[in-house]
Amino acid sequence: MKKFEYFKPRTLEEALTLFTKHGEKAKWIAGGTDIIVMIKQKTMAPEVLISLQGIPGLGQIKFNGSLSIGPMVTHRMIEMSELIKKDFSALADAVGWLGSIQIRNVATIGGNICTAAPSADTATPLLVFGTQIKIIGPKEKSTIPIEKFFKGPGETVLRTGELIKELIIPKPLPNTGSAYYKLQRRLALDLPILGVSVLISLDKNKVSCSDMLCTTSPISSILHKMEEDQIVCKEVRIALGVAAPTPIRAIKAEALLRGKNLSDELLEEAAETAVKEAQPRDSIRGEAWYRRDMIKVLVKRMVMKSIERVIQPEETVFPERLW
Ligand SMILES: Cc1cc2nc3c(=O)[nH]c(=O)nc-3n(C[C@H](O)[C@H](O)[C@H](O)COP(=O)(O)OP(=O)(O)OC[C@H]3O[C@@H](n4cnc5c(N)ncnc54)[C@H](O)[C@@H]3O)c2cc1C
After folding, report:
1. What's the gap in Å between 219 CA and the centre of ligand 1?
2. Ranges in the chain annotated CATH 3.30.465.10
3. What are the pLDDT digits (tens) for 20-76?
4. In ligand 1, which atom is closest to the CA atom of 37?
5. For labelling alongside 82, which of 38, 55, 159, 227 has CA 20 to 30 A away?
6. Which of 47, 109, 115, 142 for a ligand 1 pocket mutation test, highest count of atoms within 8 Å of Cβ?
7. CB 308: neighbour CB atoms within 10 A?
8. Which CATH architecture has domain 61-170?
9. Nearest CA owner, ligand 1 atom 2
10. Using CA positions, which residue lies closest to atom 43 of ligand 1?
C-alpha cells in the first residue's frame, strides 16, 4: 500500500486550511471503509489523508422541524435511531441491509454518498426524502438538492477541498410511509443488484386507517380499498439505484400516481414507466434485462409496503425482511 501522511484536525477551519495547503494530493477520510480499500487496490493514491473524525458536530442526528444528519453519522447510529425507524423508514431499511454490523459501526453516511457508487444503499432513500446537502469549502458554502449531487459513477459535484457538512431532510407530510428494498444475491455483505425506494403520502381524508386493520393480509386489504377508490396518493417519490450511472428518481412514474386514486392497473402502469426511465447495464452482479424485470416488480411492492406502513405504522419496526 502506498504511504500517505495522515492528519486529524480538531476544527472545520483547521481541516479546510490543511486541505488548501495540500490541494489535489489530499483526500478526506471518514470511516475509511471505501477509501482504504481503494488505496489498497491502487485505484486511488492520495499522498495526504485528512480525517473528519476529530471535528465536533459532524456526527450528530438532530431533529428540529427537519431531520439533520451529520456526514460522520455511522450507518449503525441511523439503524439504532427510533425517530428514523418511525418517520424515515426507507433510510432505516437501507442501513439495516448495508454491509455487516462491523462495517456499519465505522462507515458513515457522508462517505457512502461521496463515494458515489451507483449501488450506494443510502442514496435512493435520501432521494425520496428530498434531502438537501450542505457543502462547505475553503472559499464558499452552498446547499443543493441531492438530485444535483451525483455526476456519474464515482463522481460528484464536490470540488477540491469541499466537504459535506450536513444532510437536511424535511419532515414528511402526515400519513407518509416509505420503504427500501435491496435486491441482492445473498442476505449479508453484498452490494445490491438493484435498490428501490418509495415514499408515499396518502390523502388523510380518504384513507380510513382503522377499518383497514382487518384480519386479512394488509396487501389484500389495500387492494380491496383500492378497488373502492379509497386510497388517494397525495405525494409520491420513487428512486432507483444500480439502474443508471447515478441513483435516479423515476419522475414520470411518480407523475402518473400523484393526486390519483390508486389502483392495481395504475401501479402496473407506473412500474412499467419506471422501467422505461431506467438505463440499467449488464454487470457482474446482474444483467440489464433482469434489472428491468425487477424494477417493475419492486416499484409495485415498495408502493404497497409504503402504504402498509401508513396504515399499520406499528408494523414498521426494523429489522424486517420485507419479502
Ligand atoms: C466489507 C464491505 C461491505 C460493504 N457493504 C456495503 C453495502 O452493502 N452497501 C453500500 O452502500 N456500501 C457498502 N460498502 C461500502 C462502504 O462501507 C460505504 O460506502 C461507506 O458508507 C463509506 O463510508 P466511509 O465513512 O467508510 O467513507 P470513507 O471510505 O472514509 O470515504 C469514502 C469517500 O468519501 C469521501 N468523503 C467521506 N466523507 C466525506 C465528506 N463529509 N465530505 C466529502 N467527502 C467525504 C472520502 O474522501 C472518500 O473519497 C461496503 C464496504 C466494505 C468494505
Report:
1. 36
2. 61-170
3. 999 999 999 999 999 999 999 999 999 999 999 999 999 999 999 999 999 999 999
4. 53
5. 55
6. 115
7. 21
8. 2-Layer Sandwich (3.30)
9. 99
10. 163
